[in-house]
Amino acid sequence: MKLNEQIASFANAVGDGAIEIYNEFSLQHELGLHLRSQLSGCKVQFERNVSHFNLAKSDFEKREIDIAVTSSSGQRLSAIELKYPRNGQVPESMYGFCKDIAFLEQLVAAGFQSAYFLAVADHKHFYSGASEGIYGMFRSGVPISGTICKPTGAKNTSVTIAGSYTASWLPVSGSTRFCLVQVGS
After folding, report:
1. What pLDDT, on the 0 to 100 scale, is given for residue 88?
2. Are 31 and 118 contacting, i.e. CB atoms less than 8 angstroms apart?
3. CA–CA separation, 79 vs 113, rounded Å?
4. Which helix or strand (DSSP H or E) is residue 65 part of?
5. Can you give the C-alpha Rg of the chain in angstroms?
6. What is the tally of structural domains in the chain?
7. Could you tell me the CA-to-CA distances from 112 to 24, 69, 71 in Å, in that order?
8. Do the Cβ atoms of 117 and 81 come closer than 8 Å?
9. Which of 25, 34, 58, 142 is the most exposed, fewest CB within 10 Å of its CB?
């Protein structure tokens, strides 16, 4: 079973009530435990610094990989970045989503076979509403691509996404939805 299918089965288990998540920390650990139970012959590690993989920190958007999946011999299989925003700040959180996707592109370019961005949201403002600016990328299928400027505050920061990705939110339970974006093969 492919990793995206494992992540979808995790979301189904959350929706069925077999797994409980309530913040980003619980999401990271419950998903990691789920993957460990499903991926034989793989290491599933949390908060791995890019330097662990002999990569220069200065070359990356971020330094820590939320979940790194490697073969038992250390082959870079996949990197997963997670978000479970709990404090509103919708446009800032969406900008953070974009930074994570750019980071994952960098990791794939550096040798990871694939990478995934998983967002879980239980507030409708992340997946429905107006679709201007950054909102359109996560609410109405506008491609996540190109240079994306920070939407609030000091707007002198931007992130560039080389590929083109589409965010689609799938129901988990109640108002909770998840969005999975795959980077690389």
Report:
1. 75
2. yes
3. 9
4. strand 64-71
5. 16
6. 1
7. 23, 9, 11
8. yes
9. 58
